[in-house]
From TrEMBL:
PANTHER family: ACETYLTRANSFERASE (PTHR43420). It comes from the Bacteria. It holds the Pfam family Acetyltransf_1. InterPro entries: Acyl_CoA_acyltransferase, GNAT_dom, YpeA/RimI_acetyltransf. Residues 11-170 form the N-acetyltransferase domain. This is GNAT family N-acetyltransferase. PROSITE patterns: GNAT.
Length: 170
């Protein structure tokens, strides 16, 4: 368990349990709804379901939930491989952050930065050299957010109807 200070309270970041799958799903879906309200369609609420959360909780990924005053304020997943997105660049020296979501009711409390910092520390604790993540290429604000945090752009990949930017931090 990790505790991080925010402007007025402490965030507790801990491993999520199977019983918390609906809470994580809610964080994903609410983030997707917020993104969609801004005209950003990288996530769609209807694309997420509780079985996806359970799969991450049981497939060797590390799933985390962040709480502030006992309320879920964020979540992220660390995977130890990502050949689908990273292709030939996938390696054993990296940890991959996925499904990074912050409760929009807590905007302005630097929760996102706290989650990224903690994920980075967790990845390094496992002896990994690189922290990696991806986001939709068209989401300019999120791309800038990751770059401001210190992630370096690696390249853009293209799927069917989508493009994603790959980022890495050493």
């Amino acid at each position: 368990m990790k505790t991080s200070e925010t402007s007025n309270s402490s965030i507790v970041i801990r491993s999520a349990s199977l019983s918390e799958a609906p809470i994580i799903l809610n964080l994903w879906q609410n983030s997707a709804k917020w993104l969609n309200s801004k005209g950003i369609y990288q996530w769609r609420p209807e694309f997420f379901n509780v079985d996806q959360v359970i799969e991450f909780l049981t497939n060797g990924s590390d799933v985390y939930i962040a709480e502030l005053n006992s309320e879920a304020v964020g979540t992220y997943i660390i995977t130890w491989s990502d050949p689908y997105i990273w292709g030939e660049l996938d390696n054993n020296d990296s940890g991959y952050i996925h499904r990074f979501a912050v409760n929009r009711d807590y905007i302005g409390k630097k929760i996102g930065y706290t989650l990224l910092k903690t994920a980075e520390q967790q990845i390094k604790t496992k002896g990994k050299t690189f922290v990696r993540l991806d986001c939709m290429a068209a989401n300019n604000k999120l791309n800038a957010y990751y770059q401001d945090y210190g992630f370096n752009y690696i390249r853009t990949i293209n799927g069917e109807g989508w493009s994603a930017n790959l980022y890495e931090k050493q």
